[in-house]
Amino acid sequence: MVAEREIRAKEIVTDILSGIGDNELMQKYRLTFRGLQSVFRKLVDSNIIDSGFLQGRLVLQSKAEKTIIARSPRKEIYVPLPVHDLDDPDVEGMVFNISERGLGAKGLKVEVDEVRKLSIKPDKFLQLKSFSLKAKCRWVTSSNDAQGIVAGFEIVSIGHEELQELRNLIETLEYMYR
Description:
The chain has 5 helices and 7 strands; from the N terminus they run H-H-H-H-E-E-E-E-E-E-E-H. The chain has 178 residues and is of the alpha+beta class. The protein folds into 2 domains: 9-60, no CATH class; 72-176, predicted glycosyltransferase like domains (Thrombin, subunit H). Strands 2-3-4-7-6-5 form a 6-stranded antiparallel beta barrel. A hairpin with a 6-residue loop joins strand 6 and strand 7. The chain is elongated and about 50 Å long.
C-alpha cells in the first residue's frame, strides 16, 4: 500500500492561480497525471477552488466512465505506429496495441518495472501529432519476428495535452477499424 503524500492546499492553490502548468505541478509535487487529477478533484469538492479556475485541466469523469476506461481493452493497431525511448531516440519500436491506461510495443529493450519516457509518433497519413508519456514496463517476452522483444507498459504519467493526443489517436483507430 502506498502512503498518501501530504500536499498543502494553500501552496498548490497559489501555484495554480499563479499560472503554473500541469507538468510543472506534477514535477514540483511528485505527482502522476492521475494524482494531479485527484488533487484537483479534492480541491473542487472541498470548495477550496472553483472548477472554473481548472477549466481544461480537470478531467471530469463519472464513475461509469472510470469503469469503462479501467476495463476498456487496448485497441489493436494494424498501421505502423513508431515509439521511441526519449533517452535513446535512435532505438525505434512499434506500438501494436494501446489504451488510455497502457500500450504494447515491439522492439524496445526494457526490463520489468523499468520506467521509460516514450514518444509516440503517428504516421503522417493519420494526421495526428506526436506525444510523449511516462510508462512502466509490466511484462516482457521475446517474439520470433525481427523485433525480438515484446513488452507491455502501464502509463504512469501523461500531460493534459498529451492525453488529448492519445485520445485522438484511439478515436482515429476506432474510426478506421469500424
